[in-house]
Input
Amino acid sequence: MSEVDDAIASARASWSRISDDRGAVGAARLPTRARARNTQAIGKRLTRIVVADAVILIAAMVIGWVVPLGIGGAMLVMALLVAATLLFAVWPAERAPTPERLASVDIKALPLQTERWLEAQRPALPAPAVTLVDRIGLRLETLAPQLARFADDAPEAIEVRKLVGEQLPAFVKDYERVPQALRTTPRNGRTPDAELVAGLSLIEQEIGEMTQRLAQDDLDTLATRGRFLEMKYRDET
Output
């Protein structure tokens, strides 16, 4: 084996260690990520409430300059302010894409669009599956920039779309169609909840392996170039 091959093998071993470290870091990032997600959602709702209430107040002021509102008008304005506040407090901060949309969205946007769709499914999933959804979200965030250089019809893009844009949504929807009362009832030795957790765990692992496969050429190139620099410059000193 040549020195360049040794360098490539070393880079691959380093990548494996880094992947393990990222897994541990990712687990620590999950609570922080959840808090950030909630903060963003609350911020968007508050912005909508402020804008809606401001529009109502400005409209009331303009109308009041022309026609006195009186007590009845003032009560109507208050009712509109309360209604707008309640409406935007419960309205989703951002509408998630549909599974049909995921099947056709541009490959570069697919990972983050799938993450948004998964976030919308959280209320219907058991706690262990929610943790896996967070882990899959981290995997998708890592995968997204890697797909920037691929066309929709590239073999790598087709592989990712099959798993992330088709199999993952279909699997979760299959679970959601199971009646709530039957999700904890064993069938063939495993409950639907357990089937969901096992399937999501497998999907998370496969997305991680996709990330490694997509990065392999870059790792090899980096190792080769690093060894070249060492042979050219360090050996000359």
